[in-house]
């Protein structure tokens, strides 16, 4: 009987015989189904079944619809697990796929989670990990959404927290960068004491700085520019990986410089 219905015999529940083009379309729909996008796959099957309810082939389509409906809530739960594991891009992709189905429980759950909680959780996790810029970007995007007064206040508190953390991170980086500059300065003086002259060249990769690289003290340093040495002294500009960090170092001074002040 199932085979007969699939072929479209008119005796199947009183439905009309399935035209060849409709049968072909059904095969194409089934072939396009993607387990990684259960929402979109379910929607394609459901729409086909609704448009072709008068044909015998709908019996097979309805069975497929129910099979894919059973995948929706597990997909939602997986997206929540992915978010907890900080795999936010994949979690968001699945949630948006499901959110296109407002008539399904999984679709409503996905839409509710995407409305606020997902982005709040993402911003919080990014902030905890030290990705202040990422957390601020997510929180600002969240603030543009239609939120309740309580949610608006929470999003603003999150931005306040991110700003405070950012200030602390910048202070820590500045202190570490200053330490790196001071350490390079000391090593150059040590080299002069041992060799009677300053090195002719100096880069982040110079052998003289091997110990500083090994200890991680130069992790925040991007480059050494404009190094020059004479019997009386040396000078160079230490560039940080944070483009706001630039220090001019000489045999006796360490001072901040702006881009216009570079040699």
Can you describe this structure?
Strand 1 and strand 2 form a beta hairpin. The protein has nine helices and four strands; from the N terminus they run αααααααααββββ. With 263 residues, the chain is an alpha+beta fold. Mean pLDDT is 88; it is low at 1-11.
List keywords for this structure.
four-stranded antiparallel beta sheet, 4 strands, 9 helices, alpha+beta, disordered N terminus, 263 residues
H/E element string? Answer: HHHHHHHHHEEEE
Range of strand content? 5-15%
Average of pLDDT: 88
Q: What is the number of beta strands?
A: 4
Major sheet: size, sense and barrel closure?
4 strands, antiparallel
In short:
The chain has helices at 2-7, 20-32, 38-51, 58-84, 88-99, 105-128, 132-143, 149-195, 210-215, and strands spanning 221-230, 233-240, 246-250, 254-256.
Helix-strand layout with pairing:
Elements: H1 2-7, H2 20-32, H3 38-51, H4 58-84, H5 88-99, H6 105-128, H7 132-143, H8 149-195, H9 210-215, E1 221-230, E2 233-240, E3 246-250, E4 254-256
Antiparallel strand pairs: 1-2, 2-3, 3-4
